[in-house]
Amino acid sequence: MVNQYSPLEREAEGQMLMNRRSFLAGGLTVTALLAGCQRVSGPSLRLAMLTNSVPAQLLNAFQQLPQGSNIAVTPEDSLVKLYGLLQQWHRQTEDSLSTADWVSLADYWLAPAIRQELVQPLEVSTLTHWSELAVVWPELVRRSAEGMLNSSGSIWAVPYRWSHLVVLYDRDRLPRASTPLATWADLLRPELRRRLVLPNHPRLVLGLAQKALGASANSEDPAVVEGLEPFLADLHSQVRVYNSDHYLEMLLVGDATAAVVWSDDALPLLKQYRNLAVAVPPEGTLLSAQLWVRPQAIAPVSEQAAATALNWLDFCLGADFATQLAIFGQGTSTRLWGAERSQLPEPLQTPPALALAPDVADQSEFLLPLSAAAEDRYSQLWQSLRS
């Protein structure tokens, strides 16, 4: 099969769908943990993941469990590099295979990974915590062989953490009489003209615009969304830069007043910079999940190694993982979907405005794979906006 992206996937290839800043609490780093693992003999669980996707404390905790094992980590600083590893392993011959048991992948990349035969379907019936997940998660990862949502398809991944798109802003730079930012439409306010940072990602920008107008971010034809093109033109006039990496610097030096970012990137910043505030638009937002996928080109493993690999998935779906992920990684586990703020681990309760209320979650969406015709429509709209 030809390794080929759709137009929008090519647009996003050089960017991270989720900009993940390194955050490893307590002085224990993945690098140090990996070095320690390599000094221990015996079978290892091999993970390829973003450096802060799973805090080192949780990796260490798994190693201490009776059903755990040593962990060998291949850390990468971007989702694009992780996807590249899957492609690299797919091109290897069987004699030279050296892959991970599990690779961390964003849900946005799941469809092309399936189409390119980079990953394999999973058997989740033996996972004790799988049935405890909200229905949104199996629905997200049950796909056809073409990567499209399919209620009778196979399970292709196990989601373990998620985040939602928010508006992060410097309240001190708003006019004194201004009300706080609250909705997507507030991004068009005059005081934000040329002072807004948006993600450099077409589906995110076009998706939030559709949410602002009460439409789905996954509309097959954005042209039929009433008022979308004028809204996008007005939004574009507000933008100082489309950038997924340097919004914090721009907010701190005063080059921007607001930025659209992911919630788990925003949380540590809100606790460190008291002038920053956050809004989760009540009309619904965009969602992103990190998944564990199994490389297609994995070498045969022993029965013990296969059991250890499944134990890792169960560990990532458990209640202890959810609590420790919040404490050490300031991330939200899939177990916490639909929870009221008061039910979240304490680190996720503050600031109150950051939490995704259940009624807002019901109106929020993941960016789902589109048909080829729809991809072309979105690509043309994005090119028209940027030109």
Q: How would you explain this protein's 3D organization?
A:
The chain has 387 residues and is α/β, with parallel strands linked by helices. The protein folds into two domains: 7-162 and 288-351, Periplasmic binding protein-like II (D-Maltodextrin-Binding Protein, domain 2); 164-286 and 368-386, Periplasmic binding protein-like II (D-Maltodextrin-Binding Protein, domain 2, 3-Layer(aba) Sandwich). It is built from 14 helices and 14 strands. It has helices at 7-13, 30-38, 56-64, 79-91, 110-115, 136-141, 202-212, 228-238, 247-253, 263-272, 303-316, 319-329, 358-361, 372-386, and strands spanning 44-50, 70-76, 102-106, 119-120, 142-143, 154-155, 158-170, 196-198, 239-242, 258-262, 276-279, 286-295, 332-333, 365-366. Strands 1, 2, 3, 4, 7, 8, 9, 10, 11, 12, 13 and 14 form a twelve-stranded mixed β-sheet that branches.
